[in-house]
Amino acid sequence: MTLISIVTSCLNEAENVAELHQRIKAQFEPGGPAADFAFEHIFLDNGSTDDTVARVKALAAADARVKLIVNARNFGHVRSPLHGMYQASGQAVICMASDLQDPPELIGQFIAHWRAGKLIALGVKPRSRETWAMAVLRRFYYRALGRMADVPLIANFTGFGLYDRSVVEIIRGMGDPYPYFRGVIAELGIDYATVEFEQPARVRGITKNNFYTLYDLGMLGLTSHSKLPLRLATMAGFALSALSLLVSLGYLVAKLLFWDFFTVGTAPIIIGLFFFGAVQLFFIGLVGEYVGAIHTQLSKRPLVVERERVNLPPGEALPRHSGEPRA
To answer: b/e for 197-215, b at 16 or more Cβ within 10 A?
Structure first.
């Protein structure tokens, strides 16, 4: 039977992993939409401090199709899932979150598109049960980034979807340690199918997304797939220089014509200094984001360092003391 790999990264999801695996397994049982496929379910624990690892190990003991990689620490919401995708051995890899907000019931639709010849089938969420403020902010971001990006990006897509083995190998060959998946899939130019769904609200546990993680993803998309901000910085520099020159000439002419009556004062000078200082700091920070992205690309660090594996072939793990006996 053709093997499908399900990859889920988790961080403190002890309350969700058992239900997640049960709902995934139901898709491959007799009568399920993927009953004629075999599957493996790879959990990647990203530094959980609750009982997530223990509960996944219990699932793995009862079902050899459940596999576990325990990271040495939290390696982030991009590197860990990417590492799991590379460790999968199926002919197709399905990536999803472990918080049950990516419905496993869409697996059948993904596989149907794959059978029809699509190498990629993506879950997109035009509707989501989230606060109105977050929905408005997300919509604004997608539209703004879509206008600035060098390639048409996929809105409302978070990585949830099916990827053919050939696509996985292309992404691996790119060597990008911190890819922006919306942009990477669009960059490849491979025809893909989309499956729309309404993202349900989280039932158990708390979200691991905060301002920093959302900002990180936002800047990652901007710096990875658009040069427009850098060009805006250059054009703004020219425009502000020209404006400054015109204002200076205007003040000079006014002073020469009305020497005894026209006083410059300190207020315009202070306002101008603060304005130009703010503009400079903004664009220096923007350039810093691009430099940081280049640094990430060139640092050649491993995606993750593994602490432990369960039901998987041996892989790279934490270094051990030279006198420690081997298993």
So the answer is: bebeeeeebeebeeeeeee
For 111, counting Cβ atoms within 10 Å of its Cβ (0-12 exposed, 13-18 middle, 19+ buried), the class is buried
Return d(Cα 203, Cα 13) in angstroms, integer: 11
d(CA 318, CA 197): 40
Kind plus residue range of the DSSP H or E element containing 68: strand 66-71
Element (H, E) at 133: helix 132-148
Give the integer Cα–Cα distance in Å for 70 and 309: 6
Q: Pick the closest to residue 109 from 194, 204, 176 (CA basis).
A: 194
208-to-98, 156, 246 alpha-carbon distances in Å: 11, 18, 51
Pairing of strands 66-71, 38-45: parallel
**pLDDT 10s digits, 82-131:** 899 999 999 999 999 888 889 999 999 999 999 999 999 999 887 666 66
Structural tokens at position 127: 């509707």
Distance in angstroms (rounded) separating the CA atoms of residues 138 and 144: 10
Dump pLDDT digits (tens) for 283-311: 777 777 777 767 666 667 778 889 999 99
**DSSP H helix total and E strand total for the chain:** 10, 8
